[in-house]
Amino acid sequence: MRLIYLSPVPWASFAQRPHKFVEWFHGRTGDEVLWVDPYPTRFPLLSDFRRFGIQDGQEQMANPPWLRVIRPYSLPIEPLPGSGWVNALIWRRVFHELDAFASQQPALLVIGKPSVLALAVVGRIKGCRTVYDAMDDFPAFYSGFSRWAMRRREQQLVRSVSTVLASSTALKQRWSDLQTDVRLVLNGLDLNVLPPPKVSAATSNQKVLGYVGTIAAWFDWEWVIALAKARPADVVRLIGPMFVPAPVVMPQNIEMLPPCNHQAVLVAMQDFDVGLIPFKKNDLTASVDPIKYYEYRALGLPVISTDFGEMALRGGAGGTFLSQTSKDINDLVQAALLYREDKESVRHFRTSNTWESRFDSAKII
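Below the sequence we write its predicted structure tokens.
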């Protein structure tokens, strides 16, 4: 069985859930994969041009011999009615490659993001199992007519495929009304890239309360500033690309470092005493299961998170401390710093939350 994967992210980007899915598929079947890079599914925004030149720690990945990557080109008009008819003329080569790939042996078709192209491919390639791997609330990232169009396309896609994989409880609940076969497949971690866990307390009086990841619309600056003010003797270390401006005046103990590649990120996490996930509680985060949670815990770090998305369901999980208001921050930090992890519990967490165990549980091959 071959795999056709229409991805929400380029192959030549930071390894994420889509990359792990195709690696898992090849590891289980030994078969080939045709990866389709994404294309613009909304009108261009001024912020898109502002992102040019911003480094985000992306890793250029060489194509393994079992994987072929194609990149569709399109006019940025997808929200408009009839855009598919126009772009279909540009996609003729893509359709030809997909048809040829699927005709040689049975294929599994996985869609990682709703689009007009995805709907066309689902209707075009017959006799294969179709899966929508729902990783985000995609319409929440759009606005205006683009949001409405994306919502409509996503609903069409959910009705069209045979199975939906939901990366969070909220997404599973949402799509169960439109699709009878919805399976919860949370995010996970890659054991092969993890450094040794941190299972002993730091001796320094100054603690490092750290965050690694993108700083964008979902990042809760107010919470982070409240944390820095509540812990003036500690360092709040933020590592990652910034797509929203930082406050003009910040406490001096907030330390901002540039983005780096994934391996360097994991090494940087080893210097943390506490891992932070300071996200706002809104439509953007309501369906999110943050991968950084798994990486923090797999390194033996206690985690302090705001109570958004899938994190809101982890109040009873070991080493996990949920903040509901800025007033509880200091107590949570003290509790997190007192938390002690042992090697066996870290080992169990690692082996229980691998990408392989996640995708195996989906039972789609």
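The domain at 2-185 is CATH 3.40.50.2000 (Rossmann fold).
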